[in-house]
Amino acid sequence: MGAAIGHLTRGTSGPRTGQLTEPRWVRFLLIGVTLGFLALFLFVPLAAVFTEALRKGWGYYFESIREPNALASIRLTLLAAGIAVPLNLVFGVAASWCIAKFQFWGKNILLTLIDLPFAVSPVISGLIYILLFGAQGVFGGWLQAHDIKIVFAVPGIVLATIFVTFPFVARELIPVMQSTGTDQEEAALVLGANGWQTFFKVTLPSVKWGLLYGVILCNARAMGEFGAVSVVSGHIRGLTNTMPLHVEILYNEYNFAAAFAVASLLAFLALITLAAKTYVEYQFQKQAEPISASEGYVA
Amino acid sequence: MSIEIKHLSKTFANGFRAVDNVSFKMETGSLVAILGPSGSGKSTLLRMIAGLEIPDAGDILLTGREATLLSARDRNVGFVFQHYALFKHMTVWDNIAFGLRMRKASKEETRSRVNELLKLVQLNGLEKRYPTQLSGGQRQRVAVARALAPHPQVLLLDEPFGALDAKVREELQEWITELHEQSQVTTLFVTHDQHEAMAIASDILVMNHGKIEQEGTPLEIFDRPATEFVAQFVGETNFVDAVVTEPELAIWGPFKYSVVGHPVGQKVRIYFRPNDVYVTSREESLQVKGKIIKTRFQGPVIELAIEVGAEKPVIAHVPKGLTFASGFVEGRDVYVGITGFHGFGL
């Protein structure tokens, strides 16, 4: 037996890379195509945004951003995201908690409803709010009589943003919560924890990276949303224009440098989101399979 | 504290009757095993005692006090889950301290109790580790420490060693017996492993199809099975079918089995264990002739399958050390006698 093993070791210790991988030219071709595609569709546009933005120099760049209408659009975008993300955080956590930890009638219907904003075109989502709250809409008359403005005003934009970004947190959390099961919650209960303590000390910490991941995606979409917001906004400068809408207006007015300056802010935001997302994903994976050889656990 | 269960029943939403009119009583400080195959309702029974499932009917009394509708958090029981259910985001220390913090123990009290438990479960020095940095056996010990921390009146363990490999399992079985001797906490554990139940428990409840088949000491369960199920589930066993031909006597081959309570003409099934079979190479009285068709080495015993003209070959265990055991090879003619048996009417 020992002799056989020794022979096997000798037999396999020689060079074997030539037989076990693709030929060199195939590898270079495949890697080259991938990198070329990445450059053409991701890096070139990104670089273009920043070069176009700086075409007329740094002075013009900062002026375009500090111009009152641009500042108003930044404020509105932050406001919409600032309201939509926390609300969807609460909705998402509540919905995924229900779906993952309890059995009840109508669970699949709830799941389908959560996915609805993904399935519906954002323009249609915006149109729904016009049909509901617009001047000719279902509640239009009542709202006008009470002097409440929703469509072509900030509330409409916030509503549309909430609707479009609704699924992100829940969709991210449901599989994470389902995979942890209910054992830990039951353990907490037997140890004397009440419902709130179980939720805040056991359930929430065990899904924190998944939750953060969902929030990052939700925030990115909330700030970048165009279609639904465009329909309900009415494009009133300085009042109901978010950053993506402001970029469109500037572009349509052939003010390219200013358009790209504001766009570069959104691109910058995307880069930060990407970095944060990568970090969170890394932590997430570390938590999912944290047994490393270096820990040297003892049996 | 004592546990008393009266006519407890539970049917699941899909119509499965998991626990069917179960009653039993456990004395303070005892160590009892619920033994049964999977689906016998043993885990459901345990979860009802912990308050994790609500029974449809019946009563649960803890220390004589009605607890059937008490919330799990007010029952003061310790529960150890099959897959540990440790809080993955907390260190060993925080896991063990959790129950104390929930019950608003002071900082000083928490610290001394956690230290005490770390020593008890032999995990000193590992308190800063996270559960994922521990081996299976260590995790299970953390789970036991966490359950014991708030001084529960009773410790419930659901298949506590099911997920561990054989060697660690044996070590932990021994450890849990020692732990019980030290702490004297009333302990009830669920297992499908008869060896585990026999090795640890002072009393065993055998469950099948949601009912208790027998309650008794390991010796009673093994030597005097009350039902056919217990006879075949606990320990290895042979059986032959015989007919009652004379009052209180069933006959199979040269053997006369005394069976009480079965009328003449009734078919009975006679169970006997492999270690109740004695095999000789020369004929003695009351034996049946057979031929060894298979031998299997099983460490301290040699298992023989002997063809005797019954439906199935008789399985016999012969101690390896017997001088004549080496002569028992496949194809050899031998004589088989039976020293102990249990008969059940068919």
In short:
With 299 residues, chain A is mainly α.
What does this molecule look like?
The complex is a heterodimer of chains A (299) and B (346). Chain A contains 16 helices and no strands. Helices cover 78% and strands 0% of the residues of chain A. In chain A, helix 9 packs across helix 13. The longest helix of chain A has 34 residues. Chain A has 299 residues and is mainly alpha-helical. Chain B has 2 domains: 230 residues, 3-Layer(aba) Sandwich (Rossmann fold); 109 residues, OB fold (Dihydrolipoamide Acetyltransferase, E2P). In chain B, strands 6-7-8-3-9-10 form a 6-stranded mixed β-sheet, sandwiched between helices. A 5-stranded antiparallel β-sheet of chain B has the order 13-12-11-14-20. In chain B, strands 15-19-16-17-18 form a 5-stranded antiparallel β-sheet, with no helix packed on it. In chain B, helix 2 crosses helix 3, helix 2 runs parallel beside helix 4 and helix 3 crosses helix 4. Chain B starts with a strand and ends with a strand. The mean pLDDT of chain B is 87. The interface between A and B is medium-sized, with 25 and 34 residues.
Head-to-tail CA distance between termini of chain A: 29 Å
Unreliable residue runs of chain B: none
* Overall 3D shape of chain A: globular
End-to-end separation of chain B in angstroms reads 41 Å
Question: Topology as H/E string of chain A?
Answer: HHHHHHHHHHHHHHHH
Q: How would you write the strand order of the largest sheet of chain B?
A: 6-7-8-3-9-10
- Global structural class of chain A: mainly alpha
Percent helix of chain B: 10-25%
Biggest sheet descriptor of chain B: 6 strands, mixed
Which sheet architecture does the biggest sheet of chain A show?
Answer: none
Detail the topology: elements first, then pairings.
The complex is a heterodimer of chains A (299) and B (346).
Chain A: H1 2-12, H2 17-20, H3 24-53, H4 57-66, H5 68-101, H6 107-119, H7 122-133, H8 140-145, H9 154-165, H10 167-180, H11 183-190, H12 195-206, H13 208-224, H14 227-233, H15 243-252, H16 256-288
Chain B: E1 3-11, E2 17-26, E3 31-35, H1 42-50, E4 57-62, E5 65-66, E6 77-80, H2 92-102, H3 107-120, H4 136-148, E7 154-158, H5 166-183, E8 186-191, H6 194-200, E9 203-208, E10 211-216, H7 218-223, H8 228-233, E11 238-246, E12 249-252, E13 255-258, E14 267-272, E15 277-280, E16 288-298, E17 301-307, E18 314-319, E19 333-338, E20 342-345
Parallel strand pairs in B: 3-8, 3-9, 6-7, 7-8
Antiparallel strand pairs in B: 1-2, 1-4, 4-5, 9-10, 11-12, 11-14, 12-13, 14-20, 15-19, 16-17, 16-19, 17-18
